[in-house]
Amino acid sequence: MISFDRISQEISSMIQQFLDVKLGEEIAQQEEKSNEENVRIIKELDKEIPHDLNEDFSYKRPYGFVLEGKAYKDIDTWRRLYTVFCKHLYNRDPKLFSSLIHHENFISRRGNKTFSNSPDDFANVAIPITKDIYADGNLSANSIRNNMKKLMEVFEIPIDQLVIYLREDRNAEK
Q1: Residue 110, class by beta-carbon neighbours within 10 Å (0-12 exposed, 13-18 middle, 19+ buried)?
Q2: Beta strand 162-169 with 50-51: parallel, antiparallel or unpaired?
Q3: How are strands ordered across the β-sheet holding 60-67?
Q4: Whose CB among 18, 120, 161, 165 lies 3.0–4.6 Å from 48's, allowing a Cys bridge?
Q5: What is the side-by-side order of every strand in the sheet holding 115-116?
């Protein structure tokens, strides 16, 4: 029985890693955290080198980020970072975020949407931001970076209000 439990946990871990999900994981809700907790997380993130949206994120993995003084950690994929980032913006201004569905900066020349009310508008992965708004999740790290830049512009957030911390650079020399 002990061996069965160990093997089932290993299989569960491999499935979660492969599907890029964590069972039982709750969305990072930093608004509920106290200011002291936020400062502690920011200090913890300071162990890494800060990065901004003007960099190339190819072959790099996120660890966390600080947006408008709110720290988010345990972010292990760009999709997760983008999800938490979008939820932060939605909580900041739900009406403005909802308007992004029809905003010209978030609809490509071919008519592909970045945000939609229907997950069926996306070919592969739809990220639920709210119960009514979905974001395209089939994006590279640099495409996510570009969308984040556009979102910060729409929400009138200065670019220096976002700092990203990376946990690894698979392309770096040892």
Answers
A1: exposed
A2: antiparallel
A3: 50-51, 162-169, 60-67, 70-73
A4: 165
A5: 115-116, 134-136, 126-128
DSSP codes joined into one string, 135-152 = EE----HHHHHHHHHHHH
Q: How far apart are CA 68 and CA 20, in angstroms?
A: 27
Question: What gap in Å lies between CA 86 and CA 154, rounded to an integer?
Answer: 12
Q: What is the dihedral of CA 115, 119, 120, 121, to 10 degrees?
A: 0
Least Cα distance to 89 among 142, 156, 44 occurs for 156
93-140 pLDDT tens trace: 999 999 999 999 998 888 889 999 988 888 888 999 999 999 998 899
pLDDT at 29 over 60: no
